[in-house]
Amino acid sequence: MKDQQYKIIISYDGTGFVGWLAQPDEPSIMGALQNSFHHVFAKKIQILGASKTDAGVHALGQVAIFKTDLAIEPKKMRWAWNKALPESIKIISLESNDQFNPHANVIDKTYWYYFSSEKPSPFFARYCWHYRLPFDEKLINKALQVFIGTHDFEHFYKGDDRVDTIRTIKNISFEFVPAYNAYRITIVGEKFLRHMVRRMVGAALHVGAGKIDLSEIKSALNKSASSNLLPTSPAKGLLLKKISYSELGSSSSGSGSRIS
């Protein structure tokens, strides 16, 4: 039987994983998905994901594809596969789709970052950064707005394998979420660099706490200053909310999640 391509949307708690990409002898989201599929169906698959989330980063709407010659209804495949996955990973949807490419026709990706000024609830602590310094909310929001637009994020990127570090941030919002007694930063853009969101958040919070000046963010974006003073916020507060595509109805979102 000819291989059929499937599109899946996955929700996961990244705590305890080395990230999305499979690593030898290390627990990864991709590895857990591939190994559990092989365990249930005795078939090996190779998964291609839309975003390479780092160690400790969570997702509500990660998007991926895989191919298999397994002759089974998508609904039954998802049910059996989910039963074999750890509680920290859930396949939200699974559908046959031969044309879809998770890297093509991306409109934007939406990330959430949670932080709190007080010790978080034990039921939310693994998804939230306890920022212990006193801060000014208005200054944090002012710093976040500086990132909107097209900039060179070289100083907000960890690594040296990217020639092009120009990225466009479409929108950033900042709000308090009473249900979690925590703040949520929403960042929307088409593409992101490694640690980019975490460095943006860390820099904005340090501006709010008076640890660095707003001008230092502007200088870093203009590449007229180094990134030595720009902190990287912890991975635990970062969550890939959804990925939107140009095709109608192709937006990903983790419905029924406990984080909203």
Q: Determine the structural class based on helices, strands and strand pairing.
A: alpha+beta
Mean pLDDT: 92
The ordered H/E elements are: EHEEHEEEHEEEHHE
Beta strand %: 25-35%
CATH architecture of the largest domain: 2-Layer Sandwich
The share of residues in helices is 10-25%
Report the strand count: 10
Radius of gyration from CA coordinates = 19 Å
Q: Would you spell out the secondary-structure blueprint of this structure?
A:
Blueprint (H helix, E strand, L loop, with lengths): L3 E9 L16 H13 L6 E2 L8 E11 L5 H11 L4 E8 L9 E11 L12 E2 L6 H9 L3 E4 L13 E12 L4 E8 L6 H13 L5 H8 L16 E8 L15
Parallel strand pairs: 3-10, 5-6
Antiparallel strand pairs: 1-3, 1-4, 2-3, 5-9, 5-10, 7-8, 8-9
Helix pairs in contact: 3-4
